Amino acid sequence: MSIGTPEALKHLRRDPMMKAVIRQVGPCTLTPARRQPYEALVRAIAHQQVHGRAAEAILGRFIACCCPKGFPAPEEVLALTPEQMRACGLSGNKVLAIRDIAEKAATGMVPTRAAARRLTDEELVERLLPLRGVGRWTVEMLLIFTLGRADILPVDDFGVREGYRVAARLDEQPKPRAFAAIGEAWAPYRTTAAWYFWRAADLSKEGRFRAPTAI
After folding, report:
1. If both were cysteines, with which of 49, 66, 94, 153 could 90 make a disulfide (CB 3.0 to 4.6 Å apart)?
2. Of 100, 121, 157, 171, which one is the catalytic site residue?
3. pLDDT tens digits for 131-169?
4. Is 171 tagged catalytic?
5. CA-to-CA dists, residue 144 to 83, 85, 89, 190, angstroms
6. Rounded distance, CA 208 to CA 97, Å?
7. Displacement of CA 88 from its chain's centroid (Å)
């Protein structure tokens, strides 16, 4: 299975609300990045609680400090002192988290893309959650945007639940547990559903989303 396939759209359109969202948003254009999980996790840590442009500037300094020719290998990160990493603009907590990820990648706990293919979604969640600074949402973003897993519904994500709220014409977002139960109907294509709800939330912020009048 993959994301945004004709099979996925056919399945999701059985839900009248999803059908209306898909009609407005158009084709699914989600294309996972061809990165190693280790790199994706380090980038995610750098972006935590920092504006996108500022995070990219910090990442740029960090990468240049480690390996000017490309994204640094775990061993190159560990060769830096914490003080050198702090000088790039990383907070103390982020330095600790990135070093932990690098250590776990060097030992194989953080799998390569090839090794990740042999692991289920939940196996990857269980394996990566013990990493410092990494929560379930971070792993789910890795599963979606790096590994391209087809059946991930990040129920803790504000944007996904907001997209559902506006599409379903609700006054409040559903709670994560309730949203997980609702989303069972979209399996095994919940990643595609999540992407459409993200886009519905974006269109709603721009005043361009029209919720279906009847579902």
Report:
1. 94
2. 157
3. 999 999 999 999 999 999 999 999 999 999 999 999 999
4. no
5. 33, 28, 28, 10
6. 39
7. 25
